[in-house]
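Hi V.,

You were right to ask for the full record rather than a summary. Here it is.
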Amino acid sequence: MVTGDETSRAYSAVLVAMVSISFASIFIKWSDSSPFVIAFYRLIFTCALLTPFILWSRGFSELRQLRVSEWTLIALSAVALAFHFGLWIVSLSLTLVSTSVILVTAHPMFVAGMSHFLLREKVRRAAAIGIVIAFSGVCVISIADYGEASDTLFGDLLAFLGGLCAGIYFLSGRRARQRISLGPYVFSVYLFSALMLLIAAVLVGDTLIVLEGRELSLFLLLAIVPTILGHTMFNYALKKVPAHIVSTSVLGEPVGASILAFLLLPEETPGPWIIIGGALVIMGLYIVLSRGRTDKIKDGRE
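Predicted structure:
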């Protein structure tokens, strides 16, 4: 069974991930590379950084022992992640950082419903209220941004579709993490996603060879901060924290990204409605993370 200490560590990992993923849009905005190239290098650098850990923990041996059903979950997560990154990074070039991040994180209600009916994880009333409050904050921010950038509808649509893919990624990850250890799972998902993004880059004619030190540094930062400290920590928590709670915690990204955009991107200054929306998001997240926990689940492999 999952112990109290393990659950506390899982929720701490969620908090670390919330902060870390907020840096992704900033690093991407700073990059001059094309969207698919950015996403490919982000994930392939992550795999390179994780390889020593996988070798040390004998993760490749575990991968060889996985069943077809487990590889199916890995494949579903990888496809969802590839589409999530691809659609979202393209959207960042077409709309504001805060609008894109808001729409790409608009998946908690979808995840909560699917988690309830497919994974049999009861969504408590407090969690449902927190999700509604947090999402209302997201809507406030989105409406405020849309009023200033009404010509970005296609970018908004891509970001929203990327959010739906993120929802599938969390749901399949929740199921997979009950069966597969963290290292082998994230390594295989990141690697397969990277290969799909590489194919996408080739198909659209992107230049694949990047030698500029600045660009490579940004790819490395994307691998370390929002991927290893962000996505990987979310995947760690998914073993012990219900998918709808992890999904809702991603709503903290618009707040963090908007603050960072204000500090690091002078052309993107949040107005009063964004601040109000951010306060609602934080309030909702507090309710979900502090009072929305479900019953403990049976423990599996670490």
